[in-house]
UniProtKB/TrEMBL annotation, chain A:
It comes from the Bacteria. It comes from Ensifer adhaerens (Sinorhizobium morelense). The chain crosses the membrane at residues 28-51, 96-115, 127-147, 178-203, 224-246, 287-306. Keywords: Membrane, Plasmid, Transmembrane, Transmembrane helix, Transport. Belongs to the binding-protein-dependent transport system permease family. SUPFAM superfamilies: MalF N-terminal region-like, MetI-like. GO terms for biological process: transmembrane transport. It is a multi-pass membrane protein. The keyword Membrane applies. Gene3D superfamilies: MalF N-terminal region-like, MetI-like. GO terms for cellular component: plasma membrane. This is Sugar ABC transporter permease. It is found in: Cell membrane.
Amino acid sequence: MLHSSIDRAAHATPPVLARRIRGLSDRAIAWIFVAPSIVLLLAINIFPLIWTVRLSFTNFRVNRPNEPVQFVGLRNYLNILTDKDIWLTMQATAHFLIWTIVLQVLIGFALAYLINKKFRGNDLWTTIIVLPMMLSPAVVGNFWTFLYQPQIGLFNYAIGFLTGADPSSFSMIGDTSLAPWAIIIVDTWMWTPFVMLICLAGLRSIPSSIYEAAECDRASSWRQFWTITIPMVLPFLMLAILFRGIENFKMFDLVVQLTGGGPGSITELTSINLKREAFEKWRTGYASAYAVILFVTVFGLASIYVKALNKVKQR
Amino acid sequence: MMKQMLLSSTVVVGAYFAVSGAVGTKAAAAELTLCWAAWDPANALVELSKDFEAESGNTMKFEFVPWPNFADRMLNELNSGGKLCDLMIGDSQWIGGAAENGQYIKLNDFFDKEGIKMDDFIPATVIGYAEWPKNTPNYWALPAFGDVVGWTYRKDWFSRPELQAEFKQKYGRDLAVPKTFAELKDIAEFFQKRQIDGKTVYGAAIYTERGSEGITMGVMDVLYSFGFEYGNPKKAYELDGFVNSADAVKGLEFYKALYDCCTPPGHSDAYMSEDIDAYKSGQVALQMNFAFTWPGIHADANVGGDKSGYFPNPAGPTGVQFAQLGGQGISVVAASDKQKEALDYIKWFAQPEIQKKWWALGGYSALRSVVEDPSFATSQPYAQTFLDSMAIVKDFWAEPSYASLLQASQKRFHDYVVANQGTAKDALDGLSEDWKDIFEDEGKY
């Protein structure tokens, strides 16, 4: 049936066109198929990237169309790298990144380990656990601001209930020492299920025969865990860390909804700071240089990490 | 027979042209898009604009964006030369950039042609919303909505005999509308964590928002009356000693003290809507907010009517009294293809009877014939406060670089007031340096 359809289509092709197509090599046909994607990629990814690099060496401001654009060399880059406020946002980003990854990996792996055991209601619990990651970050940010509200928030109430403290005596998003942890808690709540799913895939990919062989060799559960489970799940864990690392390096929506970068600039992550430079101060050239620095940082770190990941996989 | 056929054909052809002419006229009617913030006055303007639609045959579309995203969204639109908005009721601080970058059309010739005189509007609104450069007769907008930061208070709580007695005993004066900021702080402290009707209430809801312009509007509202100046009045852009004067430092210290002592828990990122919520829910005795909120408060079932009163910014330590200007002018967007119709809208909007209706619907008219009408001051319980407040206004920078100037103040003020970083002097010294850097980039020195 399929062949007859193809034959019919082939017969319906005008002879001139058919002759032309017949004359094309396989490579040329492959290019014809791939070309639209490449053109699209060049237009929406590569061209803006090159344009951003070009703008980063200028004083261009998108809100000053009448002003002459001047080449400023490396001035934007030097200004960024010597600006102590930007280093503070880098520190805030590093604090957020490191703690979210540590917590998500530990809790995510623990949950995956539990879910991997056979018990009643296993599927139901899996579904419940993965619910947070299905929500929109803007929605999550919004409702956690209510949960953190000192007077009516459930979070403050729960902490008050457990510790005996007055719920309205502390403000998770208004206190400089608590706000960095407030955003870490919410991101961990939302994205731990993602790490859990990846770990679960890793755990389920370990053949049971390996554990059976270890049992025969009288290896303890603890030894099985460290010599079988961890090494075999490690590539999956590293992949989860890579995904979460890249995502959290560019974290924006959740934190903007929760704290707006405050109090002061305590939770102003690099992406929030970059947005302020680009779309509030309209320093387009400067913001382009900032974006290039962040891109090179993420790209560089990710490349090193991917090499390490490949080495782990090869072992 | 032939004649009859010819006649009937003529009639048919005539009728066709008549109908198509009518249709053509209708097709020529434009659909105008007016862009503004999403807030109560915008709803009043929708109602008011129905008259314009009926009168002109044009239809009005509205693009309203919530305040926290208003500047981002609309400045993006202006900067990209977008055609979404034909008319823009943009914030007063945008006027410099919009004028210098050719985003608004200049209205002088139009005003002259239509007999619209800027002398007919409240002077502060003309300077604040329409002129660029300031204090020169170059007009880029028609004052559309007068607004100013003032205060709302719980009149019903103030009038309770037991509270009055306790207050008098503690402070040696009546519990009444504060005349100075020091008195305002006493009142806020008096109410802080007080039990009223079985509920814990707090002193004051003030502006502390970090993301857009909130904390700057709040701090500036207080700083002016403490002696803050944007620069040397005799030498433009000379900031040191004015922005960070000893009086300004005292003003900023006062704002932080007010935030620390007397705001409700979790009030660390509050602007207009958060302050309204705190006040309407009966949490606070005093509320700092723009005058646009007053009609809504007056109509509120919980705190409206006689339960609330209104007063202008109190005076600072030396008796100087200023308030932060809000409000906007209406401009025609240069990228619009419907400038003629947009100008028609402004011409219609400027009419005294339309301005009168605008006030009646809840919009703060800036037309003098409306606000100077003898019946105006008593037309609403907050009308006199509005007039008193509009007489003492000052505004933030309206330079083309206002966004950078604003971001610097947002950061410096929030770092000091909410995040407890450094001293008031550090914050204002830093702000002076930031602003100088920005002006240096602009080639002002």
